[in-house]
Amino acid sequence: MKPCPKLSLFNPIIVISLIGVATEYPDFTVHALSSNSFKPPSLSNRYESSLHILSLKASSGEIPNENPFIEEEHELRRKEKIQISSERKKPTRSMIDVPYDSTIKALQSYHISHGDLVMPRRFVIPNGAPDYPAEWHGADLSSTVYDMKWWQKHVRSHPDRVSELNKLGFVWERLQPEWNIVLEAMITYFSLNSNVLVPASFIVPHNDDRWPMATWGIHLGNSVHRIRSRHDFIRHHPERVQQLNGLGFIWDASEHAFQLFYKALSHFSKIQRTRDTSGQRKVLRIPSTFVVPRDDEARKDGWPEELWGYSLGEKCSAVRHKQIYVKNYPERRQALESIGFIFSPNSTLGWLEVVHAAAIYSNLHGRQLNVPQNFVVPYPPRRVTHQDGVLIQKPVDSWPWPEYLWGVPLGQRLKDVRLKNRYMTGENATSRKAQLNALGFVWNPKRGRRKHTPSPSDK
Q: Which residues contact 430 (CB under 8 A, 6 or more apart)?
């Protein structure tokens, strides 16, 4: 059994321990460090509403099998490995036995320079630093003083030293395992964001009262990445896995991101079908600048709140050009195609619409492609039938234009081909011109009013 640390009841992690979720010290007994001089940190109302999350939502479970240890990290993560490795290096000598007077001078120097004692988890005093005692040069001050062994040896039996440390702003909450600090930061992140999808670069800000002082400066995003990819902190600790599951921890960030993208696409498709009263369009056309609206506008179209502000157009472009979410995942690609997502860029998709509509128009007009500027691919006429005494409108059985082309402004598109050279640049320009020529495209139409030639769709 681990020795019982003497920490404050006001420490949120200790509160978690008392409700039976975190069991870092099962035989924990709570009392103040000093009956007179200890100043416990305040417990904000935030914890009253967020700390019970774990007890209410925690569920048993193991780490998913699809999350094996990563043998080779991405180049971007390789640098993190080096940094983490260097951070884990212990001081070349133990500083626990250094006299208290020398240590307090080092802490006072840090306080003068930074205004508090919220040091990084590993703060090594530079060699030759003039403001620090010489024996501390090259030593890790933070890992020494925020260690229960140092507290037991130099502080426990000295109430006057507790008072002296309080005046410097000593962070008593850091006298606990690093996992407790990381978990405390994740609980706070959850209370602020309703999730624990922490960006990889996120660092807990300093001097932000929303965050417990003990967590200031923690590289929380890096810690979450290490938990997810290398199982740091949780290896051989199933109770910690349970704590993370209680917070809704996402073990497979890639799958979660894809499901969010798929959900946004599906809802966009649903809105598109609703607005197209003439029928269902089979192809999703999403502007590259489209962002899911917020608030009343989002509610009007039924967008789930988790998607508000989602850059769907930008994600579509990334899927097409960079293959995010779908590279090496053919089943994901198939799922996107099934709801009408086209992997060709929007510009290519636009040309395919034009050339398909042009081919049908040419066939209907005797292999001549001289389209009026205001021509729009027509919707099919509706025929009225009676069914059980109710009038029902249905499209005609035979219509030359496929429904995904209904409403395409073919005349304007072909005018842009003539005047703006639209679709006629790049490596496909020659073949596209040849396609139009084969359809009888009129590059220089005669001016003036043209005689209308009826087509089957006019009847």
A: none
Comparing CA positions, the residue from 200, 338, 333 lying closest to residue 258 is: 333
Dihedral sign of CA atoms 179, 219, 221, 216 in order: positive
Amino acid at 286: I
Cβ atoms of residues 38 and 199 within 8 Å:
no
Q: For residue 372, which amino acid is it?
A: P
Contact 317, 348 (CB under 8 A): no
Q: CA of 256: how far to CAs of 159, 259, 420, in Å?
A: 51, 5, 43
The phi, psi pair for 140, rounded to 5°, reads: -90, 105
Q: Do 306 and 320 contact (CB within 8 A), yes or no?
A: no
Per-residue pLDDT of the chain (459 residues; tens, 9 = 90+): 444 333 333 344 433 333 333 333 333 322 333 333 333 333 333 333 333 333 333 333 433 333 333 333 344 455 444 444 444 444 445 788 999 999 999 999 999 998 888 888 788 999 999 999 999 999 999 889 988 899 899 999 999 999 999 999 888 888 888 899 999 999 999 999 988 999 999 999 988 999 998 899 889 999 999 999 999 999 999 999 999 999 999 999 889 999 999 999 999 988 877 765 544 455 677 888 899 999 888 898 999 998 999 999 999 988 988 889 999 999 999 999 888 887 765 556 678 888 889 999 999 999 999 999 999 988 887 665 655 555 555 555 678 888 778 778 899 989 989 998 888 888 888 999 999 999 999 998 877 655 555 555 554
Residue 267 tokens, joined: 């809802």
Report the 10 Å Cβ neighbour count for 432: 17
Whole-structure pTM value: 0.53
How far, in Å, CA of 11 to CA of 5, rounded? 12
Contact yes or no for 154/33 (Cβ under 8 A): no
Reading the block at residue 93, the tokens are: 């000598």
- DSSP assignment string, 192-252: HHSS----TT--PPTT-TTS-GGGTT--HHHHHHHHHHH-TTTTT-HHHHHHHHHTT--S-
Q: In whole angstroms, give the CA distance from residue 210 to residue 147.
A: 25
